[in-house]
Design a protein that fits this description.
By secondary structure, the chain is α/β, with parallel strands linked by helices. It has 9 helices and 16 strands. It binds arginine. The site of arginine has 15 residues, from strand 3.
């Protein structure tokens, strides 16, 4: 073999090797961002979130994404034998990020709803929630119906926004639709809205962490129970099976209850 030929065949070997390697990462259509090991099994998944939602998903002073949802997903990942990496997208960009395969799935206290199920797949539920109303301490509001002639702040395109739309009219100018839940609450504190409506854990956490802000919580039995699920691109059965397997394990071994304090069937 001449030197030139030897170099050429070495090049060919390197090229085919790198093609094989490239194939590993992108092997299955469903999890473009997921990393697969030598046997093709998924070893790592990228998770998108809206980290403005304490105590569920938020950032600590160092910029780490933390919270109850993060603890839950870490436990699911451990049970399923995979690693996870979190990326903060914000609430509205999260949905296209899942659809376009920029992330393998989303965790963000996302309520499983029939409308969302038309566009996405959801894992089995891992958390139960309901809407709560937050009003200034001197407010005369005692029920959701009392908000009928009031201005109501919500996080845009959340279930809080949807139920408020059912009460006030979907496109009502009485709805103050904010990009994040903390901004929605601020709109109420600043007097731009009479109430804020959102998921119970987040509303309760706000009141707990802001004892100097004079607000009160209003419960209403007309709010239906909501169930959070992890949200995936439609048809991504490989990742779905892994996540549901992890959820099953942490439900059965008590880990989920240890994190959240309650059972979800
Ligand atoms: N559970 C509500 C929904 O699915 C609100 C979730 C908002 N989550 C967030 N991280 N901002 O619409």
């Amino acid at each position: 073999m001449t030197k030139r030929k030897r170099l050429l065949s070495l090049g060919a070997i390197l090229l085919s090797f790198s093609l094989v390697m490239a194939g590993c990462g992108t092997k299955d259509e469903g999890s473009k961002t997921g990393t697969a090991g030598e046997d093709g099994k998924i070893t790592k998944l990228v998770v998108g979130t809206d980290a403005t939602y304490a105590p569920m998903e938020y950032m600590d002073e160092k910029g780490n994404i933390i919270g109850i949802d993060v603890d839950i997903v870490n436990a699911i990942a451990e049970a399923a034998g995979i690693e996870v990496e979190y990326k903060n997208y914000g609430w509205e960009p999260l949905f296209p990020a899942v659809k376009d395969g920029l992330v393998d799935f989303a965790v963000s206290s996302i309520t499983i709803t029939p409308d969302r199920q038309k566009e996405f797949d959801f894992t089995n539920p891992y958390f139960e929630a309901n809407q709560l109303i937050l009003v200034p301490e001197d407010s005369d509001v005692t029920s959701f119906q009392d908000l009928k002639d009031k201005k109501v702040a919500v996080q845009i395109n959340t279930t809080g926004h949807i139920v408020t739309g059912e009460l006030l009219g979907k496109t009502s100018s009485q709805i103050v639709a904010a990009e994040t839940m903390p901004i929605a609450i601020l709109e109420m504190i600043n007097g731009n809205a009479d109430a804020a409506v959102g998921d119970n854990a987040v509303i309760i956490d706000y009141q707990k962490n802001n004892p100097n802000v004079k607000v009160k919580l209003i419960e209403d039995s007309s709010f239906e129970k909501e169930y959070y699920g992890l949200m995936l691109k439609k048809g991504n059965t490989e990742v779905m099976d892994l996540l549901n397997k992890g959820i099953k394990i942490i439900k059965e071994n008590g880990k989920l209850k240890e994190i959240t304090g309650f059972d979800v069937e």
